[in-house]
Amino acid sequence: MDLEIYIFTNGRPTTFPAMEYGARLGATLAEASVRLIGIEEQPSPAQIDEEQHPLEKVFAQAVEIFEQQGVFYALEVMRGPAEEVIPKRVAGQQALVVIGPLGRPPLKRLLAGRSFRHFMEHVSEPMIYVPKVKWPPKRILVCVGGLGYQVTAENLAIRLAKAVQAEMVLLTVVPPIDLDYPEARQVREHWHHLLETDTLIGKNLRRGLEIARQAGLQASVKVRNGIVIGEIVDEIKEGGYELICMGSPYSTQTLRQLYSPNITAEIAERDLAPVLTARYKPEG
Question: Labelling 22: which of 6, 131, 145, 177 has CA 20 to 30 A away?
Fold first, then answer.
């Protein structure tokens, strides 16, 4: 088995979509298995003697889903805060991490921030964030940037799209550009036909389009002009996509992620559709 799908739940109902999505992924991707890991975030000694463990109901529901989908699965229970357990458990594994909202109280989210941003920083493996189930993904949106950080997520998206015969759209957004240098001028002046330009973003679009079509997929390119986050949100709503694929700012080892907005997190936290994100890793 070349890929194991790690699904995490802390028992909150908000994580149930991740369990169903992970099961369907396991049933769809060849040679993939599923591992459900329940997290006891506040274990009590009294629970040992209780007839029903707090995670037992969740596991029973998950097992029913796994068996319906006919996937090979394993179950685990770990203790500790999810923000600590998940990065440690998946470190060094050839895994696809599937998580959902952890159901944190609004005050905790305000003080500590959204957990998804923590996972983006501390989990180097690919992740799918599932606020709601949209299956099967018949239209997949891949957000393409000039730096190519989306390549790993893009390759995973192509593998999934091929398995479910989904349509793939490669989207790039040309933002208002204040800096005046040759590449920026070319992007700004030729954004209507960016695919034909010799810019970095043009090359990335052609590369992604070629790979998708070589895989037998129906693929196309969409270019929008405006504020990046707003344009991506509008495209998701207008295009009716079931899966969004984006790179990670943590693909870079420079200080860029400290001053650049985390666009992937901003989109994921809108809870419009599942979001697949992965750090860029050189092919091979």
Answer: 145
